[in-house]
Write a structure and sequence with these properties.
Largest sheet: 5 strands, antiparallel
CATH architecture of the largest domain: 2-Layer Sandwich
CATH topology of the largest domain: Beta-Lactamase
Mean pLDDT: 88
Low-confidence stretches: none
Structural class: alpha+beta
Helix content: 40-55%
Strand content: 5-15%
Shape: elongated
Number of domains: 2
Strand order of the largest sheet: 2-1-5-4-3
CATH class of the largest domain: Alpha Beta
């Protein structure tokens, strides 16, 4: 969307949101004479703590500087929904709004139902790499997170503690991916704490964290040796659930025919 189109869309959006509210909605007395429905610009400006001129220019789509705090107050005054708030920030700032306060890592019931319906291993990570949901196939073929204390379900800590042939290559991939996550949520106390703990516990992490290697994509091929089913090769990929920027869904599809046969056999046993 061009700058001109974005400003026009912002103007139309603000006007429509203002028009749907009544003074009573905003806790204001209803005037006896009203020529147009909805709140006046003066009302929105006063309730948002800005000047009438500034708000008028914003609503007209003029080029004005708007801070995050002021935009949040406008969103609150206009009683915007979560989706509308995000749309407002995209139009005014050309980027998503700050994460709302509350349980941003919450996995919704539809997400859990979708996870359980998959006939391949899958789990959901937070931006701090904590595993917060997993399906029965993941338990059967990869790892039983339910048997771990919640505080130990951090995938980075689990993988760095494992002894495997491609340990160094794995470490490079993980640190490169974590660096991207870290840049997207600067100043997050949980991420800062995780980096500090990994640096103290694993020398290779401390060494790699001082480099500048990055990897934005979470895709690749990995093999696991199951105690009952032997070697299984997976191709894993990562997806962000819509509206949940702090969560990441990781899915493991069988990579070859033998692995596909094994995974389907386990799916019939576990899921029916």
């Amino acid at each position: 969307m061009s700058q001109t189109s974005r400003r026009a869309a912002l103007s139309q959006f603000l006007k429509s949101c203002r028009a749907r509210l009544t003074p009573a909605d905003a806790g204001l007395p209803e005037p006896q004479r009203r020529r147009t429905p909805g709140l006046r610009r003066e009302d929105v400006a006063a309730l948002s703590g800005v000047s009438v001129t500034w708000y008028t220019w914003l609503e007209q789509g003029r080029e004005v500087r708007v801070s995050t705090a002021v935009l949040e107050r406008v969103a609150s005054t206009l009683r915007l929904s979560t989706d509308e708030r995000e749309y407002l920030f995209e139009l005014a700032h050309d980027r998503p709004p700050p994460l709302p306060a509350g349980d941003v890592d919450r996995v919704t019931p539809p997400m859990l139902r979708m996870l359980e319906s998959l006939r391949i291993p899958a789990y959901i990570l937070t931006m701090r790499w904590d595993v917060v949901a997993w399906n029965a196939m993941s338990t059967a073929l990869l790892r039983d997170y339910g048997a771990m204390p919640p505080g130990r379900r951090n995938l980075l800590k689990i993988l760095f503690a494992r002894d495997r042939e491609d340990y160094e290559a794995m470490a490079h991939r993980l640190v490169a991916r974590l660096r991207v996550d870290y840049s997207q949520f600067p100043g997050d106390p949980g991420l800062d704490r995780l980096v500090a703990e990994l640096s103290e516990e694993f020398p290779i992490f401390r060494e790699l964290w001082s480099t500048s290697e990055v990897a934005a994509r979470s895709e690749g091929i990995s093999a696991t040796r199951h105690p009952r089913h032997g070697l299984i090769t997976f191709e894993h990929s990562s997806y962000m659930p819509e509206g949940r920027p702090t969560l990441r869904l990781i899915m493991f599809a069988p990579y070859d025919a033998a692995s596909a046969e094994t995974v389907e056999q386990v799916a019939r046993e576990v899921l029916g």
